[in-house]
Amino acid sequence: MFKFAAAVALAGALLSGAAFAQPAKPTVVLVHGAFADSSSWNGVVEILRKDGFSVVAAANPLRSVSNDAAYVSDVVGSIAGPVVLVGHSYGGQVISTAANGHDNVRSLVYVAAFAPDAGESVADLAGKFPGGTLSGALAAPVKLSAGGVDLYIDQAKFHDQFASDVPAEQAALMAAAQRPVTEAALTEKSGEPAWKKLPSWFVYGTGDKNIPAAALGFMAERAGSKRTVVVDGASHVVMVSHPEKVAELIEEAAK
């Protein structure tokens, strides 16, 4: 009887150890785009954390593709274990570059995001299909003492242009806190993109006025998207207005 009980106890310990030996969930690294900041991911972060994921919402500098990608690459390099890289808008070009050279990046998720091919810029892709109205919604450029200009969306036009499906009061706060992007970042050509080697997922809305839905669909198909979620009527900040749909797709990519 003692031997049987001991055997049962040992089996239980081994099973318990096996449970602890299961691979940890990937860390999700979220990269915001132009005219947004890390808080734009708050709703998504809340869901992911509740579901047991470690999350880093990186502060994208928005200075240049090479500079921003190097920063995100450093963030990824500091993480032990697998990573899912998620980019919004211009952040899609950043993650496409930052993932290169990192064996721990398992998948890419593009949230209303650019996925340029080598030699393409965000500006090139934005003008490839009709329907985008960003240029008419920009405020006067802010000249930088080091050269170049910063671009902002006119706060009075921010709600309609950027976040039409977000409550007006929330959109006003987002407009005031928006992070500018340099014009140079939007015209910098991409290098060889990581989506050619890594599996990718896409989600965007049909009401996006920054990147026309046709352009987003084109990029998703070209990248061989594992699954593309199109949210009817969603604005450019689909992660703010529909965090549950975005989080669900990220969790799918994390598997």
UniProtKB/TrEMBL annotation:
Residues 28-248 form the AB hydrolase-1 domain. SUPFAM superfamilies: alpha/beta-Hydrolases. The keyword Signal applies. Pfam families: Abhydrolase_6. Residues 1-21 form the signal peptide. Keywords: Signal. This is Pimeloyl-ACP methyl ester carboxylesterase.
